[in-house]
Every structure is written in structure tokens, then in C-alpha cells.
Design goal:
CDP-OH_PTrfase_TM_dom; membrane; Four Helix Bundle (Hemerythrin (Met), subunit A); CDP-OH_P_trans; globular; transmembrane helix; single chain; mainly alpha
Length: 149
């Protein structure tokens, strides 16, 4: 299911993979929260790959994590397992995954580039990631419908 938060890649690539996967997994015992944790685990592997300098593998893992992350919501709807906790877990682990990916890129860059502003750029990006969640949480309930599909 497309959301207002879907970017170009998510809309035209990821959803074309994650939606059929959600349909397939709806027939199994796999839970939406397991898929949320799987997406986070893949992001963690991406972080490790960046730190070890395996950037192509890390980039592929970032994309795979994004695809797998799109499965949990569709799976929850198909199985009738939507819950506030599931939405909360997904949101929190998504931010941690984003932070790990940016931190991995930052640490790799620090070890391979001479530019002194890399650490600052990485921390600003991580601050932006955190602010996204804070801003969404602080949206006035009367206007929340403008941010959801």
C-alpha cells in the first residue's frame, strides 16, 4: 500500500517487491513484528559492511532492508494483526536503522577521506533523522490526517 511518505524508489521499486512478499507471507506463521526485526537486522548488517569497507554489499543491504521494511505493514493488514505496538516498534526500529546506516557511512568516510567536516555532516544527518520522528509525534491531532493516507 502506497503512503504519502513513499519516495520514488519506494513507490516504483520497493513496493513492487514488498507487496507480493506480504501477500505470500500472509499464508505463513511469519508475523509483522518479525519482519520489522528482520529489516532492522539487515540494516545492522549494512552498518557492519560499511564499517568493514564493503560498500557495495552495504548499499545492497540498505536497499534490501528498505524492501523488507515495507513488508510488515502490508502483512499486518492482511493478517488482521495491526496494533499500536507494531506501529511503534516499526517506527522506532526504522529510526535506529536509519541512524546505523548514516553512522556506518560516516565511520567509513572518516577512515577514507581527509575532509574534516565528515563527522559534523554525519551528526547533522543523524539529528535530522531524530527530528523527523519528533516532528511527526508533535503534529497536532487535528491536522494528523494531512500527514497520513
Amino acid at each position: 500500500m502506497e503512503t504519502v511518505y513513499d519516495g520514488y524508489i519506494s513507490k516504483h521499486i520497493n513496493r513492487k517487491i514488498s507487496e507480493p512478499m506480504a501477500r505470500l507471507l500472509a499464508k505463513t506463521k511469519v508475523t509483522p513484528n518479525q519482519m520489522t526485526w528482520a529489516a532492522f537486522g539487515i540494516a545492522l548488517l549494512s552498518f557492519v559492511s560499511f564499517v568493514l569497507g564493503n560498500n557495495i554489499i552495504a548499499g545492497l543491504l540498505v536497499q534490501l532492508s528498505s524492501i523488507v521494511d515495507g513488508i510488515d505493514g502490508g502483512l499486518a493488514r492482511r493478517k488482521g494483526m495491526t496494533s499500536e505496538f507494531g506501529g511503534f516498534l516499526d517506527s522506532v526500529l526504522d529510526r535506529y536503522a536509519d541512524i546505523l546506516i548514516v553512522l556506518g557511512l560516516t565511520l567509513w568516510s572518516l577512515s577514507h577521506e581527509a575532509y574534516s567536516g565528515i563527522w559534523l555532516a554525519g551528526m547533522l544527518a543523524i539529528t535530522g533523522i531524530i527530528c523527523i520522528s519528533y516532528t511527526r509525534a508533535r503534529v497536532n491531532p487535528n491536522h494528523r490526517h494531512q500527514f497520513d493516507t
